[in-house]
Design goal:
With 87 residues, this protein is mainly alpha-helical. It contains five helices and three strands; from the N terminus they run ααβααββα. It starts with a helix and ends with a helix.
């Protein structure tokens, strides 16, 4: 199972473009961030030109989830990361 988890996560990461990978790493480190703060930080600190476009793209790919005023790493991705750590 561990090899599958690792390869599944690798497959997902390989499918991301440069900006999507930056945004993924941002949410991997922070897990859940208020939408306004996330957009500001991604724009100012990480130099993402259109953070909302990238966030929407990652939501459509089920990598991120949108909550009430916040954006989270999706449950399925959190599980893959958790299982990867347990290996």
């Amino acid at each position: 199972m561990g090899a599958f988890v690792s390869s599944e996560l690798e497959r997902i990461l390989e499918s991301l473009d440069h900006e999507e990978r930056i945004v993924f790493e941002y949410f991997r480190k922070n897990l859940s961030v208020g939408e306004i703060l996330a957009v500001k930080e991604l724009k100012l600190i990480h130099r993402i030109n259109d953070p909302l476009r990238v966030i929407d793209s990652l939501i459509k790919k089920n990598i991120l989830e949108k909550g009430a005023g916040c954006i989270n790493l999706s449950s399925s991705i959190k599980e893959l990361l958790k299982k990867r750590k347990e290996r």
